[in-house]
Here is the input.
Amino acid sequence: MFLKRVALAGSMTAFAASAGYACEIGARVSIVGNEFAAIQAVGAAAKECSGAEVESNLTSEHQTINVAGLSGNPSEYTSAIIANSSIVALMNEDVVRPLNDLVAKHGGDLMPSQLIKIGGDIMAVAFMANAQHLMYRKDVLQQAGVEVPTTYEEMLVVAEAIRSQGIMQNPVGGAYKAGWNLAQEFNNMFLGYGGTHFKPGTAEPNINTEAGVNALNMMKALSEYMNPDFLTHDSNTTNAEYRAGNVAIMNMWGSRASQQTTTEGVLEEVKAGHAIAGPLTVGGGSIPASTLWWDGWTVGKNISDDEAEATFLAMMHGIRPAMLTEETLPLAVWLIKGYQPTPDAQGVFDAAKMRTTPYPMLPYMGLMHSALGNELADFMQGKESAEQALADVEAAYRAAAIEKGFLQ
Amino acid sequence: MRHKTFLWFFLPTGLAMLLFIAMPIGSVVMQSIFAPHPAVLIEVESCTPLVGCTTETTIDQNATAALRAEKPLGRFVGLDIYFDRGHLAVDEFRALWASTDSWVGFFSELGNLPFYRAMAFTLTFVAVVTPLTIVLGLIIALAVNALHRHLKGLMIFFSLLPMIVTPLIGSLILFWMVDSRGVIGSALVALAGDPDFSLKASTGLMWVALLVYGVWHAAPFAFVVFYAGLQTLPSDQLEAAQIDGATRWQQVKYVVVPHLMPLVTFVALIQLMDNFKVFEPIIGFNAEAHAQSLSSFIYNDLGGETRQLSSASATSVMTIIGVAILLSPVLVRTWRDFKGAR
Here is the structure.
């Protein structure tokens, strides 16, 4: 059903393209990227280009292949669709090219805010924003007689009210799967408590702090109201639980908002009761316990100038203002000129308005994220103290950072 | 066969093995003793959507490129990576040894180090699954062999199913069954009388599920090998045992099992190797929070946003050494037999 819709979106934009917005390219284009709906739509639009072949490999495992796929000369892929976390791996390996000349030549439709500049070089073109924020069932909250929470402390009160009144046993949802997801939830909470991952200006870890301990304790308190299998639930599973009516309140990716009511098999009561709000704060802080993300595309370094130009043109066609149709509009918070926000985008805009911290774009953040993902599960299972878990994370990170040459 | 003839016979295989096995291993060893150059970091202004411009740290590509051009292999680190916390954790091990005064305390603290925790699971997996697979395989083989010939084909097919099913799919099916909303999961909740009971949240039960899966998946392999071996069992030996008044159990113990002994060695060898590299069930069961193995470490090192090639290579070399240690008793015995046969 979903794929059908994307295909439909693609064919509609193809129609729009044939009506006067042609894309003619002279060399091969090959795209690698994540597989969620908005990126599928961009990929489909880029494929409308004629004159040379446009290939795409959109998969949730994109980050395991994009560095290798851009490394050969000539490289397998000519463009990688990335986010602020994954562009770092590509820049660390120096496999993406600065786009200053191509933007000057062909970037007429771009808005200045779309350009990702690192030290004067344009390294990527962003096309959508994303953030995790609150999604909840207004009918369930009403039934329980509680207000919509704005802090995680209030979320605990809401959860207790729903459970104690016997409405739901495990009302809180969360993508707490051991690994990347669990680490991301820690990042949110840690930043919400005012933590910073590294000592300023260095690669030295700085998470075994009061903010770190508070973040872990809050996550533990929330997990008491989650399905007991929470350490195996990624965002797909968590959304499935929400759509099946088993979860009433959760912190979820904005890019999923439009699909909560349109996916096949969603319960009627979920469709009617679904609502979104901005991200929550925690511990009396004003900065939300969430992170701000953008998704964008890069052009590979190890390809000919013709291929780079063709790739730039095709990707520009993929994100041109005319690709925003009724079908593609709700899929994301687009950063494209002429975008009119849909109600589903409200959460992400609120996140931006509340000055949510962007996900740290540091060369060593990937190693920290991996270390968090591997070491925090012990604490969540009650096997060790928060301080011990955080000390383990720092030790694991340190070993990896020494290997990669970030620490001595 | 004379050794010289054998050598010529073996030469093509040997060359292929050198090219496709020995050389990649050599390259992995090389990668494990070299690490990336120290990163040259600079502060630059970076601008992103919705946020504006901030000062961020990034890698100085020109300086790094110069370093790489000078020494393309990276910086030589010797065995440092083998000894760091992600692997043998020598320093942490020593500190623990000095600071704990009881064995119980020592081992519970040791479980905090990833390598030793992974070893605890892997060696348990090897020690439980290997013998159970052999015993279960033998029982199935004896049972199927005793069936009427019309039933045999059908039974062989069904017994082989767990091996035919792709490991990842097999473990996913079991994973969904033990989910707290799955068939086995909700049955367990009803039995335990606790709505929060979860097999996936308990390390002990997760280990049991992984062990059961391991036996379930590998038993058909042992069965096929033993069943083939049973077809070569001379019937006169069995008849002689029956005339001597041996019971069914005595026949199995004194005639069948000794006849199958070389095959038991073979199955044990293969199983030791496979079980030491246990991987698919950990991924399929989403059991990373409870069980890790050297293979899942390699997967994590290569699957993260920043790939750790040196760390993954060091773990690979340690896997090879681990398999060699596990197999050494069997290999030594085979070598002795070979010497004896001459």
